[in-house]
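Please, structure for the following, as tokens.
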Amino acid sequence: MIVKTIPSTWLIEQEHRLDCGPFVKGAIETRKKIQTLACEKDHLVDLTLGGLSGMYHVGQDKIVWAQDGFHGMPFLRSSDILDADITESLFISRKQVAGNSLFQCPAGTTLITRSGTIGRMTYMRPDMTDTAISQDVLKVVPDTSKVNAGYLYAFLKSRFGLPMVTGGTFGSIIVHIEAENIADLLVPRLGAVEDQAHELIQRAANAQVESGELRKHAGSMVNEICGFPERLAPAARIFAYSSANSNDVLRRLDATFHNPIAQQAEALTKAANGIALSSAGVLGFESNRMKQVFVEEGYGTPFITSGGIFSKTITPERYLRNQLLGEDKTWRINEYDTLIARSGQVGGIIGRGVWADSRLDGFAASPHILRLRPTNEEFPPGYVYAFLCLTDVGYQLLARTAAGSSIPFLPLDAVLEIKIPTTPSLQQRQEIDELVKRSGELRKQSQELEKEAVALVERAIEGGGR
């Protein structure tokens, strides 16, 4: 419970609004701080393309789904816009998007979650333009003749802009914001700082795009060398039938393990001279399922969940009490680990993987994350990650191991039995490894540049806007 005493004049200024949201989130204090700055100020609506029409969402439009990228385009929900990789999104019909321009927006737009958890933001990168954005995301399209797109994003994301955005929420059960609620938000004009912040945000966006291209190249190399198709099936599980050798059902009787797509993926790895991950020197780790006690920062180990590892911005979600961990290393994430989401519904994040760059080194992993750690120089960590997480063959082999009915999970021993191709030469594996490592460095660089841009704007405002 939050208790706060406010002057009655605030109620008048807010047109006698009596819900507590605007008064406890710091929106009014922040607005008054901006008003006292020595610099010029503009209302947000005056800086968007077309005024109020430059802040919009798609509205209540029933989604028509598509099975592939030919008939559809990636559909980004409010949680998807925060992910580093959007290539595994669901597809919406291109025909539907063509009939409603509000689904899309140009690069440089600030995307703001407007329903549920309000105020999470991302910058529309060039690689995101061929996507459709859900109704739960507000698009703020800057008029670049009046304001730099990167600066506007950095300000709205700062600790001065964010409270004013979230202060405009309304609703009881599921809160929302609309364009009208933030149209009069004050944006300080900071001169040269705006150019500097914009350049940093653009560099951050470009680093993310380049990182994605390197990952795509690494996956394509594995496919090309091993003779794998780019896509085996439109989904992890489809209605199908097949037969299996009696020896193959001694350990697994569930039909999905023996589905024809999984059998095809297994045959492809066999043709590529695959050997088991365990035989290739890959170790597997899963966190103990103990009671988790969380403490304040400085008294615990940074903790991250299976959902958090996919985020563009890696930050500790909580801090796990150090005394619980002791000498137990099964919780620790090491740089260059391959992280696999082990729980959830097939077709969701289960079986999807993330490369652990240096931002995740030393984190404690949720029990819902499997960590694969190569120890054999002949199978570099980037190559292991590329095969499992950047090819559809690798994903189908991971997804087939899912066991359980209500909430499936990936058994670690079954994952370590997956065969990794030995067809690529050692030099080719090392080239793929370098691509993946460079991709991870760029992701880290992107996060640091964005953080630097926001900090630059905050320091300028703290300094009086001069």
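The first helix runs from residue 8 to 13. The mean pLDDT is 88.
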